[in-house]
Design brief:
Elements lengths: L4 E6 L4 H11 L10 E6 L4 H17 L4 E7 L2 H4 L5 E4 L11 H22 L5 E4 L4 H10 L9 E3 L2 H15 L6 E2 L2 E3 L7 E3 L4 E2 L2 E2 H5 L2 H13 L1 H9 L5 H16 L6 E6 L11 E9 L2 E4 L7 H21 L4
Parallel strand pairs: 1-2, 1-4, 2-3, 4-5, 5-6
Antiparallel strand pairs: 7-10, 8-9, 10-11, 12-13, 13-14
Helix pairs in contact: 1-10, 4-5, 5-11, 6-8
The chain binds ligand NAX.
EC number: 1.1.1.37
Organism: Rhodoferax saidenbachensis
Protein name: Malate dehydrogenase
Length: about 325
């Protein structure tokens, strides 16, 4: 049988933590033949650590055959020791009356510390996914704080936006989600993201031709996908958790196990393609194989798409500029 891998999850006692840990432990992320050790990080506060103990009791009570170890931590330096995968979910949400600059600053502090800890103690091949918002900028900060790890090991989660786009297209066309290929989302995980179905196909047929409605794209599809998180908060009273956890599972599974040539969306550090400045943590279409993602290159960018890409890029550059003095 396979050697166990170490999986770190931060914010493990939170909503998304509760929705993701049981799925990782049951083998949905890394395969039904891959034993895992869960290394769980929460803030040191007693309430959080106590809640974490409760989650651990429940994990134990599932008696998952693949779960060969569970650890509770309050320090990233111990939590990230030798980890092969790190899901950075915990972050500081925006409190009432909190300014954007303040939000960026507290999160910069968290992700600087966690990036440094990964740099020091994680496996040199660690695959890092940042979910905690602002996800792209937090991933950028962690990457910049871990100079001895390859840049490509740091990614941000755009997969929820990607999956939201897939389900909207399936509903619009009356076709199965499973048959949609070549969907992508460009840019920041925020309402400015640009979900792009121009290249998408369903059983070889062009989705754009099938829908043939630019007004729907601009006035219905993009706002629906962009504001979906807010719609869920309005309906549920709390933010998306199960769907976010599901997207994180999809992201890591595809990265680790491959996509068989299918496109998925990941936030990755740019190497300058599509005019996105190097290191910008940007959502792109990728394929995954052999534990590596590969950017889909050479896609045509028309005027409308360029305009959208410019908007989401500008937002990301402003966020990056807002934390530059902290790095
Ligand atoms: P919760 O508030 O339920 O849980 C967050 C947990 O993280 C808390 O238990 C908290 O104690 C812990 N935490 C805070 N700082 C920490 C640190 N420095 N180290 C370790 N743990 C820490 O939030 P939840 O609903 O689970 O969401 C978590 C994050 O995901 C939020 O930032 C949220 O905005 C973000 N999201 C990102 C999405 C994406 O697509 N990228 C979508 C869903 C979600 O909104």
């Amino acid at each position: 049988s396979k050697k166990p891998v170490r999986v770190a999850v931060t914010g493990a006692a939170g909503q998304i933590g509760y929705a993701i840990l049981f799925r990782i432990a049951s083998g949905e992320m890394l395969g039904k033949d891959q034993p895992v050790v869960l290394s769980l990080l929460e803030v040191p506060m007693e309430k959080a650590q106590q809640a974490l103990q409760g989650v651990i009791m429940e994990l134990q009570d599932c008696a998952f055959p693949l779960l060969v170890g569970i650890e509770a931590h309050s320090d990233p330096l111990t939590a990230f020791k030798d980890v092969d995968y790190a899901l950075l979910i915990g972050s500081r949400p925006r409190g009432p009356g909190m300014e954007r600059a303040e939000l960026l600053a507290v999160n910069a502090e968290i992700f600087t510390a966690q990036g440094k800890a990964l740099d020091k103690v994680a496996s040199r091949n660690v695959k890092v996914l940042v979910v905690g918002n602002p996800a792209n900028t937090n991933a950028y900060i962690a990457m910049k704080s871990a100079p001895s790890l390859p840049r490509k090991n740091f990614t941000a989660m755009l997969r929820l936006d990607h999956n939201r786009a897939l389900s909207q297209i399936a509903a619009k066309t009356g076709k199965a989600v499973a048959d949609i290929e070549k969907m992508t989302v460009w840019g920041n995980h925020s309402p400015t993201m640009y979900a792009d179905y121009r290249f998408a196909t369903i059983k070889g047929e062009s989705v754009k031709t099938m829908i043939n409605d630019e007004v729907w794209n601009k006035d219905t599809f993009l706002p629906t996908v962009g504001k979906r998180g807010a719609a869920i908060i309005a309906a549920r009273g709390v933010s998306s958790a199960a769907s976010a956890a599901n997207a994180a599972i999809d992201h890591m599974r595809d990265w680790a196990l491959g996509t068989n040539g299918k496109w998925v969306t990941m936030g990755i550090p740019s190497d300058g393609q599509y005019g996105i400045p190097k290191d910008t943590m940007f959502g792109f279409a990728v394929t995954c194989e052999g534990g590596e993602y590969k950017l889909v290159e050479g896609l045509e960018v028309d005027a409308f798409s360029q305009e959208r890409i410019n908007v989401t890029l500008k937002e990301l550059q402003d966020e990056q500029a807002g934390v530059a003095h902290l790095l």
